[in-house]
Specification:
Elements: H1 2-12, E1 18-22, H2 48-51, H3 54-76, H4 82-89, E2 96-100, H5 106-110, E3 115-117, E4 120-127, E5 133-134, E6 159-163, H6 172-183, E7 187-191, H7 203-209, E8 214-217, E9 230-232, H8 236-244
Parallel strand pairs: 1-2, 1-7, 2-3, 7-8, 8-9
Antiparallel strand pairs: 4-5, 4-6
The structure holds adenosine-5-diphosphoribose (APR).
The site of adenosine-5-diphosphoribose has 26 residues, from helix 2.
């Protein structure tokens, strides 16, 4: 790992803008389960990739709403880890743009000032019919697997999480800002993503095709391949402080 780390630090030594692309693995050391981890407790029998779908919302709205409120509660009690802090601290000596697939707010709570959420945010809600923002208040800590969402005051819609479900369009402003962050970077660091879900998974390839060095931080294998110049096989919280230190 030491050789890979010095090679990765050389790739970052350009000093120009840095783009950090993060997935669920970035928040794993904060105690937030990744999407492909086995779920625990109340949710162990549900596959998140089945709950995060428009079909699940149509057929089982109260369960989906309960699940997202539970994650909102879980995330709001989870501390940013050393990886989030290292990314935030890097802003002291270079421009850093975070592009995250995560719907948590741990990058912001660690101090990062430019964060694009390409899959939306747990803390934003909107009417599933008219699209108006809705404010359901803080989630309850009591675990429950059924919860009726608030009705929209403007008609017959319901509050839904303002996150991107499978098959849904990504928020265009966040996506466009992410593409320009990647193509304008002097280096890209991809952290904690299986690289399976598009179009987010295509950003590292876009960087590689633009001749920008790509460093991957992931203890395990991922769907990323030749577009990666250096793969640091270690957890984000352990290696990002060394990788991003001034
Ligand atoms: N540090 C870095 N990476 C880690 C760590 C860690 N401590 N722990 C696990 N990982 C890696 C895993 O090896 C895995 O490759 O994080 C990755 C998590 O992959 P996923 O659970 O698939 O999460 P992600 O890639 O963000 O999923 C993409 O799919 O479910 C949808 O919309 C959802 O944004 C999500 C998207």
């Amino acid at each position: 790992l030491r050789d890979a780390l010095s090679k990765a630090r050389r790739a970052l030594s350009g000093g120009g803008p840095l783009a950090v692309l993060s997935g669920a693995g970035m928040s794993a050391e904060s105690g937030v389960p990744t999407f492909r981890d086995a779920q625990t407790g109340l949710w162990e029998r549900y596959d998140p990739t089945e709950l995060a779908t428009p079909e699940a919302w149509r057929h089982d709205r109260d369960r989906v709403w309960a699940w997202y409120r539970w994650r909102e509660h879980l995330v709001s009690t989870a501390p940013p880890n050393a990886g989030h802090t290292a990314v935030a601290r890097a802003e002291r000596h270079r421009q850093v743009v975070v592009v995250t697939q995560n719907v948590d707010d741990l990058h912001e709570r660690a101090g990062s000032t430019v964060v694009h959420h390409v899959h939306g945010s747990l803390f934003a809600h909107r009417c599933d019919t008219c699209g108006e923002p809705m404010h359901p208040g803080p989630p309850s800590a009591a675990p429950t697997d059924h919860l009726e969402p608030p009705r929209c005051p403007r008609g017959d819609g319901w509050a839904r999480p303002d996150v991107v479900w499978f098959g849904e369009m990504l928020p265009s402003a966040a996506w466009e800002a992410s593409v320009s962050a990647v193509t304008g970077a002097s280096a890209v660091v991809v952290v904690g993503t299986s690289g399976l879900v598009h179009p987010a998974a295509s950003l590292p390839t876009l960087a590689a095709e633009t001749g920008i060095p790509v460093i991957e931080v992931n203890p395990g294998p991922s769907g990323l391949g030749r577009e990666v110049d250096v793969h640091l096989r270690a957890p984000a919280g352990r290696v990002l402080p060394d990788l991003l230190a001034d």
